[in-house]
Design a protein that fits this description.
The chain is α+β, with helices and mostly antiparallel strands. It contains 16 helices and ten strands.
């Protein structure tokens, strides 16, 4: 039997629909509940899976942004989401600086790329807001100029991938698209991988240049061997699955990044959040692997290769990309770089503290005389302090004052967009730092270590024991990583034995550790108390 609505019920339904459409035109429908809100303050929750567009519809099937006008942006966003604007103003994505408790260098000082961060890529932002600011989540003004202005927050850069891909610096200095249409403010979605990668994959001047484990290919990847977490044919996780946002602040940062976004939650994204069972001494099927979990990070075994898309390994500001000298007869352009693919990481023990350079630092403080490099980022830790992690290692040739060893923030805008003259760029950088343009300087090699977290291989692609213990091709355990004996073997062994037949390392190690339960300190300069051996 067919039940028909009464005329009164029809009129009531029509009134409700018209009211919903009217409020919908104002963009005031809660994304959380899919219900009409009277100027409410709902925010968009993170989408955990999928590299493509999230839904633009509320739970009742209506688009809450269907009648918005681009000409009224961003006021129409802030009208319904005022707290989202305020939250963004307090986030590191907007401020580009913040508290840096993970730094051993000036930990009580606010640090970040907007102000004092120095690296081996574009060195420092001084004099280069028009270029560097192109990836800022604002609408053109620097966050120190518009620190408290939510109308400078560019919501669309994260919430509309088409806008994010097309966004550029406009002639009036603002950030936006050249030919905006109303569809940009109507097709709103949760951030996707593509949204994040539009900036994060292109840091340093191009695709995959800076991080070494992120590239634009991750957005639509379907190969588990390329990245087991971020692939459309498998887990298909979005960035927010690990970098969980609360009030527009997130967790997770590389070892070379300074500011911690959410101090309450800290900076670590832990694999154990999803793989909690792997932390125990019974978490893996092989006991030898379980013996490593307290001192070897998951990434060390599960990111055996990085730069699956070629990444920058060296930069030299004295020459342009084509190798020509960057002098007064040059044209603006990118500096000379070297890029390599499919690289074995560098390995270092890291206690999750870093010594990262700041503008005005005495660079001699971290000078490494053995390889003649001036460090811009160095992970802290050793065989007794921290876990073994994989890192990208990168060098650059950049200018430094002779008299007091200060790395110079050369004017990268002058170099990249104006004249291409590295001499003029360096002189302008000196003046911006308070020196005379005639201050003597020299060219030095800097280096940096950058933590590798992405590009995780499937379990079948993880490192085998022999790749670390069978040779020094991947890592020199008994050399720079600190596993050498505390004395020469012929001196150390006879303290407990007479002369013994020489046997392979595996046999000797198993005899002392597995059978006799001797702690590492018997033969080495470190201990492993977590293994509860006999000291």
């Amino acid at each position: 039997m067919i039940h028909r609505k009464s005329p009164k019920a029809k009129r009531s339904a029509l009134l409700i629909l018209l009211l919903g459409l009217a409020l919908n035109g104002l963009g005031c429908v809660s994304e959380d509940a899919g219900t009409v809100s009277s100027g409410g303050d709902s925010t968009i929750a993170p989408q955990l899976t999928g590299a493509t567009a999230g839904s633009t519809l509320s739970s009742d099937g209506l688009n809450p942004h269907a009648n918005l006008k681009y000409a009224e942006y961003p006021a129409n966003c802030l009208a319904c989401h005022p707290s989202a604007g305020r939250e963004m103003l307090e986030s590191n994505h907007y401020r580009w600086a913040g508290a840096a408790p993970d730094m051993v260098n000036a930990p009580h000082q606010l640090q970040g790329k907007l102000t004092n961060a120095v690296n081996s890529y574009c060195i420092n932002i001084l004099g280069n807001w028009p270029m560097c600011g192109a990836c800022h989540v604002g609408r053109g003004a620097s966050p120190d100029v518009a620190a408290n202005d939510p109308t400078n927050v560019d919501c669309l850069v994260c919430h509309n991938p088409d806008y994010g891909q097309r966004r550029t610096r406009l002639p009036n200095g603002s950030m936006g698209v050249a030919d905006p249409t109303d569809s940009l403010v109507r097709a709103i979605q949760r951030p996707s991988r593509a949204s994040c990668l539009a900036c994060h994959a292109k840091a340093g001047g191009g695709d995959a240049v800076k991080r070494g484990d992120l590239s634009l290919a991750v957005a639509n990847n379907t190969d588990r061997n390329f990245d087991v977490h971020m692939n459309g044919a498998g887990a298909n996780l979005n960035c927010q699955a690990c970098h969980v946002f609360e009030a527009h602040k997130t967790i997770g940062k590389g070892s070379d990044l300074r500011a911690t976004d959410d101090l309450a939650r800290g900076s670590e994204v832990s694999c154990l959040t999803c793989h909690a069972d792997k932390a125990s001494r019974e978490g893996h099927d092989t006991q030898k692997i379980n013996d490593h979990v307290a001192r070897v990070a998951c990434q060390t075994c599960h990111v055996p290769i990085y730069a699956k898309v070629a990444t920058e390994t060296h930069r030299d500001w004295r020459r342009h990309a084509d190798g020509s000298v960057a002098n007064s007869s040059a044209k603006p352009g990118h500096p000379y770089t070297e890029k390599l693919a499919n690289l074995i990481p560098d390995y270092r023990f890291w206690n999750r503290k870093s010594d990262n350079a700041l503008l005005g630092d005495d660079a001699s403080r971290t000078y490494n005389a053995s390889i003649e490099t001036w460090s811009t980022s160095r992970p802290m830790g050793n065989v007794s302090d921290g876990k073994l992690y994989p890192f990208k290692y990168k060098t650059a040739v950049q200018p430094k004052t002779v008299a007091d060893d200060r790395l110079i923030a050369l004017n990268t805008y002058e170099y990249l967009k104006a004249t291409g003259d590295v001499g003029a760029s360096t002189q302008q950088g000196l003046q911006a730092m308070g020196y005379s343009a005639a201050e003597p300087y020299e060219w030095v090699t800097t280096d940096t270590y950058q933590l590798l977290n992405h590009g995780v291989a499937p379990a079948s692609g993880a490192l085998s024991c022999k790749e670390c213990h069978g040779s020094t091709t991947r890592m020199d355990l008994k050399g720079e990583l600190g596993y050498q004996l505390k004395q020469a073997a012929n001196t150390l062994c006879v303290q407990c034995h007479g002369r013994k037949e020489s046997k392979p390392f595996e046999v000797i190690h198993a005899k002392h550790v597995k059978d006799k339960k001797y702690d590492c300190s018997r033969c080495h300069t470190f201990s492993r108390p977590e293994r509860r051996l006999n000291s």
